[in-house]
Design brief:
- The protein is an alpha/beta fold and about 150 residues long.
- It has a domain of about 80 residues: Rossmann fold.
- It is about 45% helix and about 15% strand.
- The chain contains six helices and four strands, in the order βααβαβαβαα.
- Strands 2-1-3-4 form a four-stranded parallel β-sheet, sandwiched between helices.
- Helix 1 packs parallel to helix 5 and helix 5 crosses helix 6.
- The N and C termini lie far apart (about 35 Å).
Length: about 150
């Protein structure tokens, strides 16, 4: 996404990611995103793109987080272990309605449902971060360091 090679259903380049999750599905990726924001090279690489997180049960949170986003150029990633968490699914439905009301229903495929077991370092955490920064940066900045920590 960071290089405009990833396009949405209408052919427009995707430029923003909205990640939905609660608990570890939200906190793991948010912590890594916050840490990556301290690296000037990473910040420059992601310039012009936004990664936002939705975790609050307050319905105003959805309205506040979509301000300035275009449904044609926003990828929504729903991260959940079971897809039964009421707050996560409520936000997913609200964003599905936001996308499908702006685009034709058949083109509303920018919603990615992702199941995971471990938040920060699983596909659930890595996908939104990779869409924002590119997988090579996420791999170099996070995954390679994880391997060194896990080693005896």
């Amino acid at each position: 996404m960071y290089s405009d090679e990833h396009v949405g259903a209408t052919g427009e380049p995707l430029k923003d990611v909205l990640a939905i999750g609660i608990g570890g599905s939200f906190l793991g990726p948010l912590f890594v995103h916050t840490a990556l924001q301290t690296d000037p090279e990473v910040v420059e690489f992601a310039k012009g793109h936004q990664l936002r997180f939705l975790a609050n049960v307050d319905p105003i949170d959805v309205a506040r987080n979509i301000i300035g986003l275009d449904p044609e150029t926003t990828c929504v990633v729903v991260v959940s272990k079971t897809f039964t968490t009421a707050e996560t699914m409520l936000k997913a439905r609200a964003l599905w309605e936001w996308i499908s009301s702006a685009l034709s229903l058949l083109k509303s495929l920018a919603l990615i449902l992702l199941m995971h077991l471990h938040s920060g370092i699983s596909a659930g955490g890595v996908l939104p971060l990779s869409l924002q920064y590119g997988f090579l940066i996420v791999e170099n900045q996070m995954l390679s360091h994880r391997a060194s920590i896990d080693s005896p």
